[in-house]
Amino acid sequence: MAVERLGSILKHLSPGSSLSQITSKNQDDIVITLAIRTPLAKARKGGFKDTSLEYMTYALLKEVRERSKLEPGLVEDICLGNVSDSKAAYKLRAAALAAGFPNTASCSSLNRFCSSGLKAVADISHAISSGSIEIGIAMGAEQMTIGGDALEKPFDEKVTSQSQESADCMQPMGWTSENVSRDFNITREEMDKYAAESFRRAEQAQKDGLFDDEIVPIKTSIENPDKTWKEVTLTKDEGIRPGTTAEGLGKIRAAFPQWGPTTTGGNASQVTDGAAAVLLMKRSTAIKLGQPILAKYVGSTTAGLAPRIMGIGPTLAIPKLLAQHNISLADIDVIEVNEAFASMAVYCRDTLGLDWAKMNPRGGAIALGHPLGATGARQIVTGLSECRRTGKKLLLTSMCVGTGMGMAGLFVNEQ
């Protein structure tokens, strides 16, 4: 079982740091000097439904360049987390050049499913730490209007016939949600109660203007039913449903009745278009260039588990990351766990004993949406904004990952 494997993993880890080391300030620290995102729009019917991945990425990179006031030629690498677009690397390169970054800035895209944005942050951070580059931008973006993570055709049976877990890798994510619900006795009532609270928190945060310092307005165009176009400026997340209650959610029919009765369109993450970006460099570089230091990147890790219960991935990745840095959950101030499904969110909260007040205080993907490649970066942007508002220090982010993985990241707010 996953818990037994976790114990084996942790037993072989040697704590490499402590709270005092994590929060100390050193010249070689990898720091974040800008963290912003687009509004999150409803896929296929929202504000980005007619916006290409390359335009969304271009618009956000342009904001990074203008808001950072950094000489564009100093940026050496840009990495984009994206899941569903096979041409993402081409589109990122075109977007970066259009946004005013010179051709000396290299570009790449990567895909680790829902953790792609965090993986991009980790890769850029590690490149800076190793001396490969000095300044980089990590991004995540997804245009789910035109694509998601569904497979176009079955895997080769010569592969999947060798192992049940191999075959499980091609199963839809809704199936894994029902497996978590059934295997770990997560009830529909618990899931709807959790989802309603996610909507309530997001609604309140939006009313209070808490998202305003993390979202940058994006100008784009929408095609009208009569085939004419209108220009719009997107400023707010579109998935929040004011007045949502657990009772109301309880009336929604099951989304995957072929697998189980608990997962619905109301207690699962929304299909969403959006992007997020993080600017990274060493502390010494930020000081030399007069860049504001928002936060310190401490580290990240991944862990694997059975594909059929991929949703519980954070329960492996979080303890592993905390053990690596010799700290506990009691040291963490804000926790962002991606709400792929309420089944996994409830399981992860209860199994890890997460303080619900600290977990997704502005709501999560059930209310805000889950643009696959963007979420890992979006959580950092949102979490650091909440840390700044409340004066809190340590941010922990985590998500389950398709095909059976979990990832987690640790950051120190410095503002």
UniProtKB/TrEMBL annotation:
Q: Which InterPro entries match?
A: Thiolase, Thiolase-like, Thiolase-like_sf_Thiolase, Thiolase_acyl_enz_int_AS, Thiolase_C, Thiolase_CS, Thiolase_N
Q: Please report the organism this UniProt entry assigns to the protein.
A: Dichotomopilus funicola
Domain Thiolase C-terminal: residue ranges: 293-411
- Cross-referenced PANTHER family: 3-KETOACYL-COA THIOLASE, PEROXISOMAL, ACETYL-COA C-ACETYLTRANSFERASE
Which keywords belong to this entry?
Answer: Acyltransferase, Potassium, Transferase
A molecular function GO annotation: acetyl-CoA C-acyltransferase activity
Pathway(s) this gene product operates in, as recorded in its UniProt entry:
Lipid metabolism; fatty acid metabolism
Catalytic reaction(s) noted: an acyl-CoA + acetyl-CoA = a 3-oxoacyl-CoA + CoA
> Which family does the record claim for this protein?
Belongs to the thiolase-like superfamily. Thiolase family.
Which cofactors does this protein require?
K(+)
- Domain of life per record: Eukaryota
The terms describing its cellular component in GO are: peroxisome
Q: Name one Pfam family in it.
A: Thiolase_N
GO biological process terms, alphabetically, are: fatty acid beta-oxidation; phenylacetate catabolic process
Which named protein is this?
3-ketoacyl-CoA thiolase
Under PROSITE patterns, the record lists:
THIOLASE_1 (PS00098), THIOLASE_2 (PS00737)
**Span of domain Thiolase N-terminal:** 30-284
